Amino acid sequence: MNREALKRIIFDQHEVIRNAQVVPRRYSLDPQANYVITGLRRAGKSTLLYGVAQGLVESGVAWERIIYVNFEDERLVGFTSDDFQDILLAQSELSDERGYYFFDEIQIVANWEKFARRLADAGERVYITGSSATMLGRQVSSTLGGRYFTLHVTPYRFDEYLDARGQAHEGGALYATRDVGRISRHFDVFYQQGGFPESLHYASAREYVENVYQKVLLGDIAARYNVRNVDALRVLMKKVAETVRTDVSFSTLHNALKGIGYGISKDTVISYVGYAREAYLLFGITNATAKFVEREGSPKYYFSDNGLLNLFLFDRETALLENEIAVALYDRFGEGLHYAKSSRTGVDVDFYVPEAGLAVQVAYSIAGEAREREVGNLIRLARADDAIKRLVIVTKEEEEVLEQDGVRVEVVPAWRFLLGEHA
User: Fold this and answer.
1) Residues 236, 273: contact at Cβ < 8 Å?
2) What mean pLDDT is predicted for residues 175-182?
3) What is the pLDDT of residues 237-288, one digit of tens each?
4) If we measure between CA atoms, which residue out of 338, 240, 360, 238 comes closest to residue 290?
5) How far apart (Å, rounded) are the C-alpha atoms in residues 49 and 35?
6) Closest residue by Cα to residue 192 from 240, 158, 227
7) Domain segments of the chain: what residues?
8) Where does the record place a coiled coil (predicted)?
9) Which one in 92, 94, 384, 413 has a CA-CA gap of 20 to 30 Å to 204?
């Protein structure tokens, strides 16, 4: 590739970095390590790197040493692995000192991992981002051979959202009447609109999220995996959204599409859901009480951000509340997060983390019959598992402590749970 063109791209990116408003996030990067940073599109991966680059310049590193290349730049269409060497040559022409390399959405270029390994072996400092879980797949991991740390970036969590809004959420702010009222109002917006960082700057957050969703669906899924029936993919994502809060099998999803005229196979449904998970659109949790071979058969699926789920829903309140709690718990416990459901014991608990001894039910309200149902499910699980240390019911607004049959159940509003007092 023409190196002068590469230099123009690099200097243009310097202007973007200079002007970027970077809100501090909860991630800390070791300055001596190389990173592969993954996550949902528009979650804030690039902005995180802008902050790293700004910090380097503030510490005295010359701009000419900041080599930032976004591979979604239309000027790089047709870029191949053979062109990577030109980036190194361009850097050597810009500065006699070593560069700091930032590569955005590098997975677009086939065999990128071989170049990344070569840079690491040469002792270069490298930061890489991508919007696909395949970047951490077995083949790529084998090539990189432990030379890179991995970091997963998500849209704002509630505490970060409050930081971006300038709202205190620690110490006395969690109890002062005025602050609690403000935090609660911020949560009302957050759990409806989600936490995409840039959405805070738009008059219509929903329109922004819709654009992100279309980019993920058409670019990160349909184009990347050569999906032939995009309409079926769209409808499948809607059907998955309708199942949030319930376990669902691939057969159920396949039959739902078949019933409305989409003649795709069950294997195709399995592939499409897998693609959505690899693009970080969805994640799934399994039934901890099921036999090992049955756990993958009926997962519960959730969307990685409430703004995405809200695009599909008509009855929003409880589904959004549960999805937000799922996102927070999955962010903390990863594959250790499950649900618990057993026809034998009558247990039906939304979230269960065996290693942490934590069981969580989500209910918009526990007024009326809901109280007996939600408390009863937690108590039945606690009786079946002596290792459980904490039982929690997350609600929209209610807060109390219940004692029943010698078992303590905490009832907490979602905003307080998300801020870590009970999580």
Assistant:
1) yes
2) 96
3) 999 999 999 999 999 999 999 999 999 999 999 999 999 999 999 999 999 9
4) 338
5) 10
6) 158
7) 3-153, 161-418
8) none
9) 413
Tokens matching residue 47: 């902005």
Do residues 119 and 36 lie in contact, with contact meaning Cβ atoms separated by under 8 Å?
no
Amino acid at position 2, single letter: N
For residues 44 and 151, give the distance between their C-alpha atoms in angstroms, rounded to a whole number.
Answer: 12
What span, in angstroms and rounded, lies between the C-alpha atoms of 209 and 213?
Answer: 6
**Is the pLDDT confidence value at 184 over 90?**
yes
State which amino acid sits at residue 266.
K
**Residue located via tokens 């402590």:** 401
Q: How far apart are CA 418 and CA 169, in angstroms?
A: 11
Could you tell me which of 133, 283, 311, 130 has the C-alpha nearest to residue 212? 311
Among 111-125, 279-293, 331-345, the minimum mean pLDDT is found in 279-293
The predicted structure's pLDDT at residue 317: 83
Question: CA-CA distances (angstroms) from residue 229 to 221, 226, 235, 243, 277?
Answer: 12, 9, 10, 21, 18
Q: What angle do CA 239, 242, 243 make, to 5 degrees?
A: 95
| End-to-end Cα, the chain, rounded Å | 51
pLDDT at 33 over 60: yes
pLDDT score recorded for residue 296: 75
Q: Are 409 and 391 in contact (CB under 8 A)?
A: yes
The DSSP-derived string for 333-357 is: HGGG-EEEEETTTTEEEEEEEGGGT
Cα angle: 243, vertex 226, 70; to 5 degrees: 95
Partners of 151 in the β-ladder: 37
What is the CA angle 408-412-413, rounded to 5?
A: 165
Distances (CA, A) of 349 to 72, 233, 264: 43, 30, 33
pTM of the model as a whole: 0.94
Find, among 113, 133, 112, the residue nearest to 225 by Cα: 133
Q: Which two tokens stand for residue 286?
A: 């399994």
According to the model, what pLDDT value does residue 423 have? 47
Q: Which CATH number fits domain 3-153: 1.10.8.60, 3.40.50.300, 3.90.1150.10, 1.10.1660.10?
A: 3.40.50.300
CA distance 244 to 305: 13
